[in-house]
Amino acid sequence: MSCPLCDTSGGTLLWEDDFCRVVRADEPDYPGFLRVILNAHAREMSDLSPGDQQALMRVVFAAEAALRAVMAPDKVNLASLGNVVPHLHWHVIPRFANDPHFPNPVWGEKKRDTPRAAPADLDAQLAAALNRRLARVRETG
């Protein structure tokens, strides 16, 4: 059975190790929309050992912190759904009060047509912020 997160990177690769990767999703209305994707194919968090669960969440939290530092969103949404792609991954989504769906979820009813502008070097800024945070995680983890 084919899995898009096993067969492709799932977005623009910003950070990766042997365990998981962080990509920027191709979501034009949501620059900075990140996915933290487990490299091994697993469906649920409970499929992982407690240590692997903690390791994955450290990366999710680092992705959230990187978004906050680089984009200063009004809120960050974290979601692990997998209804369409049953491969363990987390969505880390910067939200702004004037984004197209706010206060609804990004998958909800659109409220306005105001895509957010992003700096041309957004990927580089996010990758640098992720590397700083995840280097510290490795040192203390």
Summarize the structure.
With about 140 residues, the protein is an alpha+beta fold.
Radius of gyration: 15 Å
Percent helix range: 25-40%
Distance between the first and last residues' Cα: 35 Å
Strand order of the largest sheet: 1-2-3-5-4
Q: Mind summarizing the main beta sheet?
A: 5 strands, antiparallel
Structural class: alpha+beta
Based on the structure, what is the oligomeric state of the protein chains? single chain
Task: Give the second-level CATH assignment, the architecture.
Answer: 2-Layer Sandwich
Summed up, the helix count is 3
Beta strand count = 5
How many domains make up the coordinates? 1
N-to-C series of helices and strands: HEEEHEEH
CATH-assigned fold name: HIT family, subunit A
- Gross morphology is globular
Give the overall pLDDT as a whole number. Answer: 91
CATH superfamily: HIT-like
Provide the CATH top-level class.
Answer: Alpha Beta
Beta strand %: 15-25%
Low-confidence stretches: none
